[in-house]
Please model this.
Amino acid sequence: MTSTAASCLLFLTMKSFEEAELCFPELLNSSCRKAMRPHFVSILTYILLSSISLITVTLNLLVIISISHFKQLHTPTNLLLLSLAVSDFFVGFLVCFQIVLIDGCWLLGDLMCILYYVLYYIITSASVGTMVLISVDRYVAIFYPLHYPNKVTQKRVKICICLCWICSAFIHSLLLKDNLEQPGRYNSCFGECVIVINYIAGLTDLFFTFIGPVTVVIVLYMRVFVVAVSHARAMRSHIAAFSIKSSVSVTAKKSELKAARTLGVVVVVFLVCICPFFCVALTGQDTLLNASSAAFVLCLFYFNSCLNPVIYAFFYPWFRKSIRLIATLKILQPGSCETNML
Model:
């Protein structure tokens, strides 16, 4: 289901009602035809996709460098953000494949086509899995604040992240096994990039990649939101009566609530951006999409990877400070990893 939908979306972005030149003129009737578009539309699309790719790669690379370099940022929550940044970083590279497809032709060969899809689904699945881990992290932090440092350790988070990526790679390698064994077996002409999986496998993938994880994320964050609101009201009404010791506790709670709010924005934006694509797979209405709506659904998914670092820049002072240190090359100074970032 998900793979079939992606094939349809990718194919629709390649199609046009008017087709002209062949992708491979030397192959005559066995070649796919190029999509015929106004020149300015192709140039505008190229500039837009190139900009998204460059911005996505750059911003997420800043997040990866920041969290990896500065020791003070090596917290369980930030490790989850690091995993998300890695997936977004690779999404930036995947946009380059859409640039190749501006004229509607896949020129990189059947092997690169299937590798593109494998990487695409691994990244998508790992991103959704990371969102689930982020939701669980915030749930534990809000509901069990006293046990959080013992329950959610760096070691456990690293293990969970590794399992998330390994399981994603393993499952989708099995899912695309037939396509990997014989790349291009489902292409109808040279210059096309299409994969097909059986209905049961696609439905199973749709459940474990989208329906199940998204349900868990929504349920956990609804509970976190309700508790966060009640905690915020309690702190506002009693903060004046707290002692110094209690003030430390209140500060800690505020920090957790702020983190929950920030990561809640990340989760909501993520769901808004990926839901249209998965809803197409869920409803099976692929054929109702035209080239424009298919392109919009894909671009919305890609654009989410640009938005996450922007959200961090608005809500996390440590990220803004890190960007300044990187831009001024102070990060290269000895002992810079020990810099106070909070």
The mean pLDDT is 78. The first strand starts at residue 19 and ends at 22. Residues 2-338 form a domain with the Rhopdopsin 7-helix transmembrane proteins fold (CATH 1.20.1070.10). The radius of gyration is 23 Å.
